[in-house]
């Protein structure tokens, strides 16, 4: 697969460089507004560890809500399926920061990938630890997945999240009124804001997602991160909920489990085949990367990796 896949990745990067409609960079978090819309990166890591990268694949960016995949994985490891008593597993059909459904659904967020759900996950991660310890645990976990100790948290972004996160504060306070936030809101949100401020490159992000490609196991270390069943279920949630109210459109166009972030990153998984990360900071109307989505659509068109494509025939 290696040679032709490298050619495809390079072709897609060239096509994205020439694209005229690049979306709109998120401006409600000031540091994100500074990122040039001309940036585009892509990295594809195969099951054997081969990495194909092009464009700005080694430039760190704020992964924002893509980090919710790693937070959910950690929280499931801590409390198991008890997590689902506090967070649902259904698509929301609403914007990522919507408060609309919380009242009628008694403070239980629809899924762990909308902001309200991820805030509850952060509350679970906080457990009995101090926020600094929990943030350190998240950072160690992601570094271990990627095999890269250089991954860090962008403190400027974290501060900006804190300064501008009024809607997230409202979500947390509202859920606390329903007793679905168990710690002081400012401590829980400290975890959430720092997790979203993780800075990674496409290469690092694709490497970190390998366990979801390989049935819950990190193929480089052989370490089991989650069970095969749990990896499958995380992928299912990424497929149905990973792009908020644009999840159906992403499944329609791309057909892979994926998680987006308003920093312009998307992590996509072709189970058993590849872990893919793309980054382009310009967003579409639903807050997902405009060119990142297009790049992934072209990737599956040229590789046949959509989970909805028929499997190739087995040689007799």
Order of helices and strands: HEHEEEHHHHEHHHEHHHHEEEEH
As a percent range, the share of helical residues equals 40-55%
β-strand number: 10
State the end-to-end distance: 21 Å
Word description of this protein:
With 316 residues, this protein is α+β, with helices and mostly antiparallel strands. Helix content is 46%, strand content 12%. It is built from 14 helices and ten strands. The strands form three sheets. A five-stranded antiparallel beta sheet has the order 3-2-9-8-7, sandwiched between helices. A hairpin with a 4-residue loop joins β7 and β8. α1 runs antiparallel to α14, α6 runs parallel beside α9 and α6 crosses α10. The longest helix has 16 residues.
